[in-house]
Structure formats: C-alpha cells, structure tokens
C-alpha cells in the first residue's frame, strides 16, 4: 500500500488544499493529512480543531485520513511507512522555500520523495492567512473554503 503524507499547518484548510488532496488521492492508496502541531506559529485554531475541519472537509474522499504531530514530518513518515510528501506550490516564489524543505527532508530521510502539486488556478491566490484576514473583516470567502471552515471562522471572529 502506497501512502502519501500531506503535511501542513492548515490553519485553516481551504479549497486549494482540498483540490490538491482530491487529485493526490487518486495517485496513492492512502493520503494522510498531517497537521503540524507547532505552537510557536501561533495558530488561530487548535490542532484538534484543524484535524476536525480537515476530516469534515475531506469526508467525500474515501482514502483520506487525518493525524497531527509535533515531530519532524520525515520521522512521522518513516514511522507510518509513507513513501512521499505532497506539498502545494502556488507561485514561483513558493518554490525556493519548498525546494529547501524538500532537500532537507531528503537528507534526513532519502526514502521519502517530495512531490510538489499546484492547485486549480481559481485557488492560486489562496493561503490560510488571507482566508483568516478576509474572514476577520467579514469579507465573503464562501467560494474558497469548505462549509465547516466557515462555521469555525464565524465562531472565532464573532466572539
């Protein structure tokens, strides 16, 4: 069974992430979202909230599961016997960072391959920070996020 990890902060997941997951899930037997539980990034949502949002947002994809970790992704990948990592690539400016991460991950675990995937062009401008910023100012982002995320964002910003 070929497993791929889709790691990230996912604070929160948006339709660009879901688009990549839908396509990547067709290439592997199992796709595992791995929420990076790194409090130094000061996420808006807890790791448990992010895991739940991803679960609900990807419930229509039969071979997806969700986990979280505080450890290095390549170590987590080794532990669960994943063969690759999926990373989203929106712009050329993303490439340099993703390339550096891919090379470091390769040096830490050469058995793990990094695959860079682009989302559909209608999501190319999206990132989680933009989603949170627009939502906090009551902007309309309904077309860019799963319904469950909208509920979580409203709960955070209406308190």
How would you describe this structure to a colleague?
This protein is of the alpha/beta class. The protein has a single domain, classed as 3-Layer(aba) Sandwich (Rossmann fold). It is 42% helix and 18% strand. The protein has a 5-stranded parallel sheet with strand order 3-2-1-4-5, with helices on both faces. Strand 2, helix 2 and strand 3 form a beta-alpha-beta unit. Helix 2 runs antiparallel to helix 6. The radius of gyration is 15 Å and the shape is globular. The N and C termini lie far apart (45 Å). The relative contact order is 0.21.
Cα-atom radius of gyration: 15 Å
Overall pLDDT, averaged? Answer: 94
Number of strands: 5
Residue share in β-strands: 15-25%
Strand order of the largest sheet: 3-2-1-4-5
CATH topology: Rossmann fold
Characterize the biggest β-sheet.
Answer: 5 strands, parallel
Going by helix content, strand content and strand pairing, the class is alpha/beta
Low-confidence stretches: none
Q: Encode the helix/strand succession as letters.
A: EHEHEHEHEHH
CATH superfamily: HUPs
Count of runs of 4 or more consecutive helical residues? 6
Distance between the amino and carboxyl termini: 45 Å
How does CATH name the architecture?
3-Layer(aba) Sandwich
Q: Which CATH top level class fits?
A: Alpha Beta
What is the total number of structural domains? 1
Helix share bin: 40-55%
